[in-house]
Design brief:
11-stranded mixed sheet; two-stranded antiparallel sheet; 13 strands
Amino acid sequence: MLRRHRNLFYYAVDCLKKYKTRTIVVLAVFTIAVSMLSSVLFLKDGLEREAELSVSLAPDITVEYLKGGRILLLPASYVEKASKIEGVERVVPRIWGYAGIGLNTYTVIGLDLSRLPNYYELSALVERGRFLLPEDSGRGSIVIGQLIAGVLKVDVGDTIILLSESIEAHRFTVVGIFSAESTIYTADLIVMPIEDARAFFRIPEDYVTDMMVYVDPEFPVDNVAAKLSLLPNARVITQDLLLRGYKAAYAARGGFFVTMWAILLAAVALVSFSQATIVGRESRFEVGLLKTFGFTTLDIIEIRLIESLILGLFSASLGITIGIIYDVVFKAPLFAEALLGWAFLPAEFRLPVYVSFASVFAIYSVTVLPLLFATVVPAWLNAITDPELAMRRAAA
C-alpha cells in the first residue's frame, strides 16, 4: 500500500514537470501573493510585540491635564494629591517634549530618577554605557536610542547639541545608548534627568508635563484610575488602554493589506480551479489512459491533490522566505510607512520583524487549502469520465 502511494507521488511530480506552464504560473502568482502577505503579517506581529514591550515599561496609569479639550501643563500639586489616593504606591512627575537635531525631531523625556520604581528595567535596556544616575541631574547627561546614535554617528562620551523650542542650543553628553531590542520604544528617544528637561523646555517649577502613577498590586488598577479621574481636568490613561490602542492601530493598518492579499490569493485559487476544470487535450488523454491501465478514480484525485499540495507548500515556503528578506534586508518599502504611520524612516532604523507560529500557520492555510479545494472537484470530474470517451475527445 505504501509503495502504491509512493508511486502516485512520483507520478504527480512528473506531471508538474510535464505541465510546466501551469506549474510556473501557479507557483509565480502564489509566491508573489504570499511574499507580500507574509511581509505584512510578520511586520505587524513585530510591531505588536514591540508595543507590548513599550507598554510593559510604561506606568500603570498616566495622568495628563486637560483644559478646553487641550493638553496643558499639569500642576505639580497633583503629584501630592495623587499620592494620597488609596492604592497609589508611587507617583513620578515627568517632563517631556520634542527637540530638533538638524532636520529631524526627536522625543525628549525628563525623569525623576530618585522616584523611578522600574529603574533597573530601564537600565537593562542600555546596550552601551550606562543609564542615568540621580547625581547626573544638572550635568547635561543623556541616554539616547540606537536610531539617534546611528543618524548622528555618536557613541558613549560624545557631545550633541539640542535645539529647544526657544531656539536655544543646549549641550549634552551621551552616557548610554539603548539596545536595538526595544526599537519602537527607544529608537528616537532622549532620556535626561527631570531638572535638565525643565531647563531645556523652560517649564516653571510648579508644573510638569504629566505624571506616572504606579499602583499597589493589591489594588485593582481600574479602581485607582476611577479615583484619579475625579481630580479636576484630569485625563487618565491606563496601561491596558494604551496597549489596546497600539494593537488596534496596527491591526487596522495591517488588516487592509491582509484583506487585499487574501482576495488576491482567492482569485489565484479560482484561476487554478478554472485551469483544472478546463483541461487541455493532453491532460484528457492522460486521464483516459490512466483509467485504461487500471488507475481508480481515487488514484487520479490523489495525484491531483499531491500536485496541489506540492505547489502550495513550495510557494508558501518560498513566499515566507522572500517576505522575511523583504522586511529584514530591504526594510519593507511601502508597507513599513503605512503600518508605522511615519513619513520618513532613516536607513539606521531596524524594523521589528517577528515570525510567529500563528502567522506562519495562517499563511500555509490560505495557500494550501484553497489549492486543494480547487483541485478536488475538477479532478473528480475528469476521473469519472469514461476512458474511451476521454481519449477520443482528446484525439479529436
